[in-house]
Design goal:
InterPro entries: QCR7 (IPR003197), QCR7_sf (IPR036544). This protein is an all-alpha fold. The chain is built from six helices and no strands. It is about 60% helix and about 0% strand.
């Protein structure tokens, strides 16, 4: 990635990236979600594998946040203000494990081994 593009995407250097991050933070806080909750395990099998490797209580907390967000969305409501202030939308719990899974898959591919899982399209 070019240095110009990196500086454009960095919230500390670009006002547009900063505005986007602030808007996204507010939207995630309204529903009590974290950014990592938005990753879909059915879209990318690496995400599914990373979720399988995480401790059960972290995955349970993720599922609870998603259920609460769906419930609030269906009711056309938001979290109460005091709970919104307690939310930490950009505290990551998935990125380290996801990077490890992707690194293992790249290493497996470099060694010429078969992939651990393959997607089949019906």
């Amino acid at each position: 990635m070019s240095s110009f593009l990196q500086s454009l995407l960095d919230p500390k250097k670009s006002w547009l990236a900063s505005l986007h991050m602030k808007t996204l933070t507010n939207r995630l806080r309204k529903y009590g979600l974290r950014y990592d909750d938005l990753y879909d395990p059915y879209y990318d099998l690496d995400i599914k594998e990373a979720l399988n490797r995480l401790p059960r209580e972290i995955v349970d907390a993720r599922n609870q946040r998603l259920k609460r967000a769906i419930d609030l969305s269906m009711k056309h409501e938001y979290l109460p203000e005091d709970l919104q202030k307690m939310q930490t939308p950009f505290r990551s719990y998935l990125q380290d494990m996801l990077a490890l899974v992707k690194k293992e898959n790249a290493e497996r591919e470099a060694l010429g081994a078969l992939p651990l899982y393959q997607r089949t399209i019906p």
